[in-house]
Each structure stands twice: as structure tokens, then as C-alpha cells.
Model the fold of this input.
Amino acid sequence: MNKGSDTYTNEQLKILRLLAAEYPSIALAGATLVNLNALSNLPKGTEHFMSDLHGEAEAFEHILNNGSGVIREKVDTVFYRTMGEEERRTLCTLIYYPVEKMEELRAGGVITSDWYRITLYRLVDLSRSVASKYTREKVREALPADYRYIIDELLHTSGEEHDKQEYYRNIIDTVIEVGQAEAFIVALCNLIKRMAVDRLHVVGDIYDRGNHADRILDMLREHHQVDIQWGNHDIVWMGAAAGSAACVATVLNSALQYNTLSIVENTYGISLRDLIGFAQETYRDSTWFMPRNPDDAYYVKSSMDNLAKAHKAIAIILFKLEGQLIRRHPEFGMEGRLVLEAIDYEANTVTLGGVAYPLNDGHFPTIDPADPYRLTDAESSLIGSLTNAFRHSRALRRHVEFLYNDGSLYKVCNGNLLFHGCIPMTAAGEFDSVVCMDGVARSGRAYMDWCDKTARAAFYEHSQDALDFMYYLWCGRRSPLFGRERMTTFERYFVADKGTWTEQKNPYYGLVEDYEAAAAILREFGLDESTGHIINGHVPVRAAIGEHPVKARGRYIRIDGGFCRAYHNHTGIAGYTLIYSSRGLRLVSHSPFEGKEAAVRQNRDILAADDVVFEMMPRRMLVRDTDQGKRIIERMEDLRALLAAYREGVVSPEV
Done:
């Protein structure tokens, strides 16, 4: 053994030899240490938070493109002295939608060689600005292969340098001369968007309500760095893809309710022909089950009656499957949802909470009052076929696998705690202890971890208990994704008295607005209560009546502001997003999106005027202050130890 080796433990020597295999020379280890130190002292990348997208693909794409105002802020900073307001707005729109905006400008006779030249110069200047906080290697990785060398040269060759002015100008002129200006502009616009936001967090509920959750998922799959915290509307689709019949019925019930069947049939290739045929033969007309969005009809209006019948048919199947599931799992504590046995089928009433309410629809041809949760042979065959179709849809599986691979129930990231709904708590402010299906009582972080693990078992192991738990996560009384005492689907359909529709929230939602409760949650997840934040979605912020999304002295932020059109009247805005840059946190509210055409032709954005920077950092945050930075610093310490071992002769470098 070399001199000095007795000062190292066997475990330390093992680690040093593994490091030596990766960094076999003093020069390589030293150069890597220098590079890591430089990287750790760059400004922290900008993080972008969204929640409750609910299938609104066009609005999502626009906010993804504009980075919730990050692009506009960069344009204003770089060009406020040289460009007027309207010019800057036009440049922003070009960056958001380069192909569409150039088409509109070309039709207006605006595009000329001079326009190409000026625009390319401006985009290069802006690219240089947004790329300044990254290493040259990271910027190169983001460049399109066809233009990697040219863009890299332009970004690192200033047109103001006397010796290189001609070189710089010749590159731009040649790009125009060979007819590559528009493709080059597209490449630069994409680079700017890529560099402006380093990481995207989606805090749940991509699915349901709107028509195009699939398009959102396709965009997310192409994103350079994204993580997702599952919402209850995501988990029920994940459960359907895993093979939960109750989740399948829930997904179809929602699709029929909001008339978003195109994603089921066209995108995922799941035929509803048998369901509609069964409903036509079994049920009579029911206005209570008409789709909510007839103006966005996937089927023609003459088919709405058939959709209403199909809606009722799948709702009855859902209530039966729910009843069976609740009886299998008394530990779920959902006995209050055994509603079919609470119906007096002769008096046409239902007894809820000890009160008998008249039903507004008493036609139940498939329910046996003596055994109300038993599926008829036709219902059993139908739901079995539909569940099989969901399980074997390749397109759905591709999206759900992405949700599992890049998603989780919660995430701790750069000092913040992200989850969609709640952490079950008691009225006394304690973490609620939940007896899980394995008989073990869990609370707080341990319960969240168990829920995450069980959700994964449903998809990868297909155990019936785990599949049943996916439905519990959708609507269970102590589900962290639901957080209410009950899901009042039956009451909304069958009871006219709206007093029965109340869904009492878990105490979490009131407690977390208090600093002490928020601080206790942050501590539970190993975070600093004085600097960390809880970031939630799920419950829309009622901005129309003055509610603010930031509470608990800045420790709690709820960013569901009504992204979905169905909630706009309820919230008064079209959603909140959150930006966390190296300088602070900024909350952005959005006005309703009027469509891509209005954005392109009229340079319209959807950023409201009352964006608020609500927390400034005491100093600019660097990479070393992030989770990535902690890993970098650990690796730097390892490399310092390796260099010391090389110099002491404990480990021999390659010659």
C-alpha cells in the first residue's frame, strides 16, 4: 500500500478508486473541479410553475411560449431604448409564433431583406442575453443541429468588436442570401424560449374539462426539463389506463359531461359505439344529463339526446362500481357514498344525512333494489370491454407512462414543496393519521410516500387493491389529491336541492393559510420554514371577490386561478402562474386567451396588468444555492479529496 493509505478507511479508498476510474488524471480532475466551480457561480435558472391546465392546450401553449412574461421582460430590457412599444410587442409575438407571424408579415408586405437583417441582429442580441446565465456547453446542447456552429459563432462574436464586424455581418448576409433567413429566425426564436425558462413545474390536473389534454402532454414530452405533480384528474386517467373499471367509468362520465369525447375516441382510439347503443336501448331522454358544452360539440346537436342517455348509462355503472369498491374497502371510510341503497324506488326519493329528498329522475331500469350495486350482464360486458380498450390504448399508455416517469405525488425542489391538493390534517392542526390498506397508520410525508408507491403499483403490478386505491385518490375523503369529505356526483345529477351538493374541505385548506401550520408542513418535508414555500393548485382562487393566492406570510402559494374556461366566471381571471428567477418570485395573473390568431395578428398577450413580485431574494441566487448546486458542491469536495489522494500517492493517476 502506498504511503499515507493508513489514514483512509477501506470505504474511502473504494470511493477514491471509483472516482479515479472516472477522472484518471490530475489534469482531468483539476479541470473538472474548475468547471464545476464556475458553473456553481452562475445565476440560478428561471423556474416556471403552472397548475390546473384542464385540457386548455391553446392557452397552455401561449403561456409556455411567453414564459409568463419572461420573454416580454427580456425584450423590454434589451430593446427599451431602441424600439418602440409596438415594435417590441411585434418582436415578442414573432418569438412566440415565428412561423405564423412571418406568414402574416409576409402577406402585409413587411418582410424584405432589410427586415430579415434587422430581425436577425435583434434575435441574436436577445439570444445572447438569455443565454448569458448558462455555460457555453449547455447552450450548445440546446441549439438545433443544422445551425449549431453558426449560432454558436454569432452568440460569441460581438458585432461591436472592430476586428470581427465584417465576419459577423458576412454570416448574417450569407444566411439571407442562401434563403435560410426564415428557418434561422425560427431556430433563434426556439432557442430564446428554451433559454428563457430553465425548468417547468406542472402542479397537477392536465386532464378533463377542456378538449386537448393530449396536445398538452405531447408538448410536455418535448419539453427540455419538466416535472409533474399528479392531480386527481390525472390520477383517474392513470387508473383507467392501469385497468381500474371505476376509473374508466369516471373518465367517461366526465368526458360525456363536458363533451370532450374526441380525446377518448379520436386520440386514444377507444370506441364508444357499444356504450351509445346500450344507452339508446336502455334509457329514455333525460335533460339532466345533457353535455355542458354543446357549442363545442364533438357530435352534432341532433345527437345530444344520445349523448345524454350514454352519460346517464355510464353514471349508473359508475355508482354501482363505486359501491362495490367501497364494500371491498371499509378502511376507505366512504360508506356515506353508498347512495343507491339509500333510494326509495317506489317513492322516488333518496335519503341523505337523514333527510329524504325527491329525485328529479327516477328511471333506473338496470338497478335491482334488492342488490343495487350488481351490474347487469350487459353492463358488466360493456364496462369490461371499455376497460380492456383503455388498458390497451397505445396512445394513452404513452401519455400515462410519461406521467409516471416524469411525475410524482409531490416534489421537493430548490427549497419549495410542490403538490396538487392537500396533506390531510385534523381540525386541531395535526397531520391526520390514515390507516392504509396494509393496516399501517401513516401521516404527513410518510402517507404521501405510501400513496405515491401504491399509485405506481397499480400501473406496474395491476393488483386489485392498488387499482381500487387509484379511485380513492380521485375522490376519497382523505385523499391528498381530493381533500374533501365526499364527491357529490350523484346529488348533482339526481337531487335538485343544491344544499346537498356541499363538499366540505379538509381542514388543511383553512389551516395552511396560517403561518404556523405552513411552517410545520415545510419542516415535515425537511425544508426551511423561513424561506421555503408550499405551492398548490386544485382549489381555484376567487380573484373576483378579492382573494389573493399568497398566504401565510408568503409561505403558501395557490396558483389555480381558473385556467379552464369552465371556471372563468367563478374566478374572474384565467389562471395564475408563478415565476421563480434568480432575483425573486413573481406571481402572474392571466386574462382569457382569445386564440392564436388574435395573438398573431393583433400581438395580443394574456398577461394581466397586476403582476406582482412578492418576494425578492436578499442577493441574487446562484446555481450553488439550488439542489443541483448541492450535488455540484458534493462532487467538488470529492474531486478535492481525489486530488489530495493523487498527490499523497494513495491512488495513482494515469501517466
In short: The first helix runs from residue 10 to 22. The chain is about 50% helix and 10% strand. The longest strand covers residues 584-589.
